[in-house]
TrEMBL record:
This is tRNA (Adenine22-N1)-methyltransferase. It comes from Ureibacillus acetophenoni. GO terms for biological process: methylation. The keyword Nucleotide-binding does not apply. InterPro entries: SAM-dependent_MTases_sf (IPR029063), TrmK (IPR006901). Keywords: Methyltransferase, Transferase. GO terms for molecular function: tRNA (adenine(22)-N1)-methyltransferase activity. The keyword Methyltransferase applies.
Length: 235
């Protein structure tokens, strides 16, 4: 992967960036995504935010090598602290982190979202918490994609301003993904069910404390919920 040829995962993220956007890529690593977006004339300006010094220095080198120092600002900062009000950022990408970390980044500086009209978020795990955050903060799902790359399954969530209501199962599985039920989607949730069933088996020999009983109940509920949807042809 490089700034000319992104991974399938980042290419999917890039496909949802609006043309002419001022983009902030948080946790930008080598700044491949911002460089790609500028080179392809998708974004007009970009910020590459990185909290770790090594990747920050790699991003600075990459932007310099691409000759994009006038279009991309690389900043060493924690999360949305990389964004200033004067930047007038209207789209944010956050990719390659867990859902809870992405949510904590969004919550730590909500004022940075004031001018933002689109969020493109790629959680490695626990996309559910992003959907929960979106409902509470008046963001609505424009689209969702699930894909597999190098034996790993990723979800990409695209959010825009607006109110949204989701059922319990839509929060867990993703409303758009549930409607499509792709092969990758089915594979992901069949694996998840197998993991839950393994945990259930491991609990069989445990002392039936209130915590253990609650965990068993939660797992049985999740298994029934997801199995029901996987076998429901009409959802």
């Amino acid at each position: 992967m490089n700034a000319q040829k992104l991974s399938k995962r980042l290419e999917t993220v890039a496909s949802f960036v609006p043309t002419g956007a001022i983009i902030a890529d948080i946790g930008s690593d080598h700044a491949y995504l911002p460089c790609y977006l500028i080179n392809k004339k998708i974004a007009k300006k970009a910020i590459a935010g990185e909290v770790v010094k090594g990747p920050f220095e790699s991003a600075v080198r990459q932007v310099r090598e691409e000759g994009l120092i006038h279009k991309i600002s690389v900043r060493l900062a924690d999360g949305l602290e990389a964004i200033d009000e004067s930047d007038k950022v209207d789209a944010i990408t956050i990719a390659g982190m867990g859902g809870p970390l992405i949510v904590s980044i969004l919550e730590n500086k909500p004022s940075a979202l004031d001018s933002v009209t689109r969020l493109i978020l790629q959680p490695n795990i626990h996309a559910k918490v992003i959907r929960e955050w979106a409902i509470k903060n008046n963001w609505a799902l424009l689209d969702e994609v699930i894909l597999e790359e190098d034996d790993k399954i990723y979800e990409v969530l695209v959010l825009q301003r607006g109110e949204m209501e989701l059922s319990e199962v839509e929060i867990l599985l993703g409303k758009h993904l549930l409607a499509e039920k792709s092969e990758v989607f089915i594979k992901k949730w069949q694996k998840e069910i197998e993991n839950w069933e393994r945990v259930l088996t491991s609990l069989d020999g445990a002392e039936p404390t209130s915590e253990i009983l609650a965990k068993r109940g939660e797992l049985l509920h999740l298994i029934d919920l997801v199995k029901g949807e996987l076998h429901n042809e009409n959802s």
